[in-house]
Amino acid sequence: MHDTKTIIMAKTTSKTTSKTSTKTATKSQPKNAGTGNGNSLLHEFFLDSLKDIYYAEKAIAKALPKMKKSASSEQLASAFEDHLAVTKEQISRLEQVFESLDEKAKGKKCEAIEGLIKEAESIIEDTEDGTSTRDVGLIMAAQKVEHYEIATYGGLHQLAITLGHEEAADLLMQTLEEEKETDVLLTQIAENDINYQAAEEDEEG
Ligand code: FE
Ligand code: FE
Ligand code: FE
Question: What are phi and psi of 26, to 5 degrees?
């Protein structure tokens, strides 16, 4: 009991310290060296990861129109259309993040998103035009993208807090919430009817 209380108090104290006296405390507290330090290795990693997701969002914006065109369900097509608008906002939100850090918005090739988009394209190739089975594949491909984004924005939001970048943390949280909402919406679209319609399809169509 006594030990737990001490640990909780110690945590609370170090949090307060890092918020109120970041600059003076950095040298004497090596464990908090990253906090607010624009030259730290962690800060560099944070910036690199921002560039990665900036590249990824742009790639997603390019891929979404094709996904929309390939969808048979009107609901799915309009979900892709809506997410394109949201994605464009997310791109400018990332530009705000870079700005809040006094950095130029720059992309850095994200191999993961390239792979996920390639997978979406091969699903389109491998499924019949106008089928719900293709829609099922499109939803799964899109959800893989959303999950990649959720993992990335979740990590970035947490790092922004660690590094003391409050404005960036708020902006990243907004996007994280949007990606989560999109993921839930895609599950709903699949469960409402597309999966069941696809289950009725046979090779003759
Ligand atoms: Fe996004
Ligand atoms: Fe990446
Ligand atoms: Fe997304």
Answer: -55, -45
How many A from CA of 72 to the centre of ligand 2? Answer: 30
Q: What is the DSSP letter of 191?
A: I
Ligand number, closest to the Cα atom of 112 = 2
pLDDT, mean over the chain: 86
- Counting ligands in written order, which one lies closest to the CA of residue 91? 1
**pLDDT tens profile 75-133:** 999 999 999 999 999 999 999 999 999 999 999 999 999 999 999 999 999 999 999 99
Chain center to CA of 195: 25
Q: Is the pLDDT of residue 28 over 50?
A: no
Q: How far is the CA of 155 from the centre of ligand 2 (A)?
A: 12
Q: Compute, in angstroms, the gap from residue 107 CA to the centroid of ligand 2.
A: 10
Question: Which residue in this structure is represented by tokens 């988009």?
Answer: 117
Q: Which ligand has the shortest distance to the CA of 156?
A: 2
